[in-house]
């Protein structure tokens, strides 16, 4: 038998439902409001501390304050406080240098430099088309001055920055060799960085060394790859040791001719959504491959090795990699400065992640003898055994 509900009871139930809904809505709204209040109060305390510090410094600091440097320093400190090795704030000059570096072309002298224990600058590598080669500079030469700037007075960073300039302009370096200083004047020019080298080894094993990823790396990579495969390479070693990565687009272009069609890697964002970052067209290179990695293989170079391993079965040889498995996005500000921020984590289509842990090679081996490249020999052995 159907029971009828009286009008009074129905109204009472509706009133109760409305009341419960109001209470729950108010509860969650209050929680959200309280959280926002806490956030606002926390931010207020942070900025109040900064304002108090600014007032104290301006009232008491003995020296002069460069407002632009102070602003850059504050922004650098903010991003540095994230404690993320891959996120950083760049001044407009630093951002220009980064873009030039990523392009694979640089205006300058084509030198790789390092601080020397003497306090000066040591030349660790010279590019093949560097203008300094024409006047006989060598690796391990010591630079004591750049134009009129003594390296020990201005420091490593400022001295290196002084070497950069516009194409066609001159710079004078004071170079010390065997205790004797000599001045050399060079004309800065545009130099293309070579990041890919290759050769044919015994048993038609192709060897490709990728020292870094730049915007011009894919063109160099395709040229070397086509030369080796045209000459009959039946397997390939990809040497990624000391490769600290570079633009993701360059990695995708290099992987494209090696992989079967489909999604090879994605990036997972903070809100849980993912996006494809490596996609290959239908142009699979179906031959045995190995990769050589070490503790200085990082970022997108790790992604290159992980994708080849998971999708093409490339045997990984060497040492545990760096573990820089996050993707950075660079946003430019109106004044030309920029912030590079980690926004997502890489993952191969097979589910491999390596951020914070690195990649563990299939065959772990270290180079313990400076005169013997055991990792290189092991990679050759692996491919020879597959024939």
Question: How would you describe this structure in keywords?
Answer:
387 residues, alpha+beta, Pdz3 Domain, 2-enoyl-CoA Hydratase, Chain A, domain 1, 2 domains, six-stranded antiparallel β-sheet, six-stranded mixed β-sheet, 9 helices, 19 strands, 27% strand
Model description:
- By secondary structure, this protein is an alpha+beta fold.
- It has two domains: 105-192, Pdz3 Domain, CATH 2.30.42.10; 196-385, 2-enoyl-CoA Hydratase, Chain A, domain 1 (Alpha-Beta Complex).
- 36% of the residues lie in helices and 27% in strands.
- The strands form four sheets. Strands 3, 4, 5, 6, 7 and 8 form a six-stranded antiparallel β-sheet that branches. Strands 10-11-12-15-16-19 form a six-stranded mixed β-sheet, sandwiched between helices.
- Helix 6 (217-230) links the parallel strand 11 (205-210) and strand 12.
- The longest helix is centred in the first third of the chain and has 54 residues, at 7-60.
- The protein is flat and about 75 Å long.
- The chain starts with 6 loop residues before the first helix and ends with a helix.
Short description:
The protein is an alpha+beta fold and 387 residues long. Helices cover 36% and strands 27% of the residues.
**What is the CATH class designation of the largest domain?**
Alpha Beta
**Major beta sheet, specifics?**
6 strands, antiparallel
CATH domain fold name of the largest domain: 2-enoyl-CoA Hydratase, Chain A, domain 1
Name the CATH homologous superfamily of the largest domain: 2-enoyl-CoA Hydratase, Chain A, domain 1
Percent range for helical residues?
A: 25-40%
Q: In the CATH hierarchy, what is the architecture of the largest domain at level 2?
A: Alpha-Beta Complex
Strand segment tally: 19
Structural class: alpha+beta
- First-last Cα distance: 84 Å
Please tally the helical runs, counting DSSP H or I stretches of 4 or more residues: 9
């Amino acid at each position: 038998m159907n029971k009828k509900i009286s009008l009074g009871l129905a109204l009472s139930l509706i009133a109760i439902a409305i009341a419960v809904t109001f209470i729950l809505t108010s509860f969650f709204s209050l929680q959200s409001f309280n959280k926002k209040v806490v956030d606002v109060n926390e931010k207020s305390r942070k900025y109040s501390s900064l304002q108090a510090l600014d007032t104290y410094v301006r009232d008491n600091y003995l020296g002069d304050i460069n407002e632009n440097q102070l602003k850059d320093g504050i922004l650098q400190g903010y991003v540095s406080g994230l404690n993320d090795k891959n996120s950083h704030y760049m001044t407009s000059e630093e951002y220009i240098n980064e873009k030039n570096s990523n392009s694979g072309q640089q205006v300058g002298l084509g030198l790789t430099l390092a601080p020397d224990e003497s306090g000066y600058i040591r030349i660790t590598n010279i590019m093949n088309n560097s203008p300094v080669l024409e006047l006989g500079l060598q690796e391990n030469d010591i630079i004591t001055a750049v134009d009129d700037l003594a390296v020990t007075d201005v420091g490593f960073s400022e001295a290196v920055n002084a070497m950069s300039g516009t194409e066609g302009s001159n710079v004078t370096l004071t170079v010390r060799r065997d205790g004797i200083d000599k001045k050399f004047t060079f004309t800065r020019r545009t130099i293309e960085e070579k990041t890919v080298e290759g050769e044919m080894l015994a048993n038609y094993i192709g060897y490709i060394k990728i020292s870094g990823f730049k915007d011009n790396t894919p063109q160099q990579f395709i040229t070397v790859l086509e030369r080796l495969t045209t000459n009959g390479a039946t397997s390939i070693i990809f040497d990624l040791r000391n490769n600290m990565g570079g633009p993701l687009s360059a990695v995708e272009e290099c992987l494209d001719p090696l992989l079967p069609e489909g999604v090879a890697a994605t990036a997972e964002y903070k809100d849980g959504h993912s996006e494809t970052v490596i996609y290959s067209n239908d142009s699979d290179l179906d031959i045995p491959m190995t990769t050589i990695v070490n503790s200085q293989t990082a970022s997108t170079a790790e992604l290159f090795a992980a994708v080849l391993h998971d999708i093409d079965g490339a045997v990984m040889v060497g040492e545990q990699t760096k573990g820089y498995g996050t993707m950075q996005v660079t946003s430019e500000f109106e004044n030309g400065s920029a912030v590079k921020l980690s926004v997502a984590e890489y993952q191969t289509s097979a589910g491999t992640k390596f951020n914070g842990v690195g990649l563990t090679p299939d065959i772990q081996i270290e180079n313990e003898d400076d005169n013997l490249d055991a990792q290189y020999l092991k990679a050759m052995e692996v491919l020879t055994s597959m024939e």
